[in-house]
Amino acid sequence: MEPTAKKPRILSGVQPSGKLHLGNYFGAIKQHIELQEQAECFYFIANYHAQTTMRDLADKMSAEQNRKFKAADLLRQNTIDVALDYLALGLDPDKAVFYRQSDVPEVTELAWVLATVTNMGLLERAVSYKEKVDKGIEASVGLFTYPILMAADILIVRSNVVPVGKDQVQHLEMTADIAGKFNRAFEKNVFPIPTYRLDKESKVPGTDGQKMSKSYGNTIDIFAEGKPLEKTVMSIKTDSTPMGQPLDPAPCNVFALYSLLATDGEKTVLADMYRTGKTGFGGAKKMLKEKIDAYFTPFRAKRKELAVRPDTVEDILRDGARRARIETQRTMETVYKATGLR
Ligand code: ADP
Ligand code: TRP
Questions:
Q1: pTM to 2 decimals?
Q2: 218 found inside a domain
């Protein structure tokens, strides 16, 4: 009999940088949650990464809302919020190892070791650093060396596959480069070379038709409900075809969002209603809001239930870190040996 193939090890991280939206859900989270059934998954909240932009975010929010936001409070709150979101959306801590990055100190320890084999030129080519600095974020050393910390996240648990969005591909290429350089430098195969897996829905449209993103202010939050959700859905941009005229579903943002939530049969029904003029955009938006409610109501209930049990969430994250550290300490042992640190 063939030996059973070992399940691939999958890892991904999410920055705690604000409320998660439908783009994050259909672009990333939904797949992360499905993967926990098929592979050995490690998911973590990248709070060290978020530190590179948290003071900037606090300043921005303070200016917009005319009250003082402190970076430390914001990081703490956003971290818990992301944990609640993932757990409510179906992350099962018995299946996936779920932790907070800063609870696993081997990550930053490895980041130093990797920094000593990382070429300055490699970091200088990073697009994401330049984009963030162009947006006005402080050009800190931490922001510059962000890709090394990300390589450490991935290599510390010896992951094989990293599901990410397109914007993270360069970071994955850098990780593969750093891992190869380390293995060659110390003549040991300490790190498997990881590959990336592109998220399926690469462009969920926002309320203005551009890609949904926090930075464009066009998001529909996963856990919005009631009046605020209604207001957001009603604000989705459409063309100005008058009521009763046939509509084309293909370029319509409302139809695109509805399609993410509906069955094939439901999509055909709405498409026919568009083409025969049986619905205007207002009616379609109402159907979209109902679909969002139907899809997310059970998740909302779960989130509310968890939110009143902060100790449970804390216990889940601590236990995740404990399980992650079995692997991260094992990796560090081989790193100490390979490099002569011990
Ligand atoms: P934002 O653009 O709101 O800051 P992030 O960059 O934090 O979102 O995205 C986290 C992950 O969510 C990305 O790697 C990507 O896979 C996914 N994602 C974000 N926005 C979208 C979108 N509009 N469509 C599809 N996937 C998205
Ligand atoms: N850089 C990723 C983002 O901004 C988050 C992240 C940090 C990550 N470490 C990671 C993703 C490791 C995958 C693997 O979305």
A1: 0.93
A2: no
**Confidence (pLDDT) at 267:** 96
Q: Per the structure, how many domains does the chain have?
A: 2
Residues with beta carbon inside 6 Å of ligand 1? 15, 23-24, 27-28, 164-165, 168, 199, 201-204, 211-215
**Could you give the CA distance from residue 64 to residue 42 in angstroms, rounded to a whole number?**
36
CA distances from 64 to 52, 68, 213 (A): 20, 10, 18
The answer to whether 22 and 257 are in contact (CB under 8 A) is yes
CA 180 – CA 176 distance, rounded (Å): 6
Does the structure show a pLDDT above 60 at 194? yes
Distance 165 CA to ligand 1 centre (A): 7
Asked if 287 and 256 touch (Cβ cutoff 8 Å), the reply is: no
> Are both 136 and 258 inside the same structural domain?
no
Q: Which residue has the tokens 């990550």?
A: 107
Give yes or no for residue 293 having a pLDDT over 90. yes
Asked if 111 and 128 sit in the same domain, the reply is yes
The pLDDT score that the predictor gives to residue 165 is 86
Nearest ligand 1 atom to the CA of 27 is 26
* Domain housing 326: 9-203+309-339
Ranges 20-34, 201-215, 261-275, 279-293: which has the least confidence = 201-215
- Based on the fold, state whether residues 17 and 150 are members of the same structural domain: yes
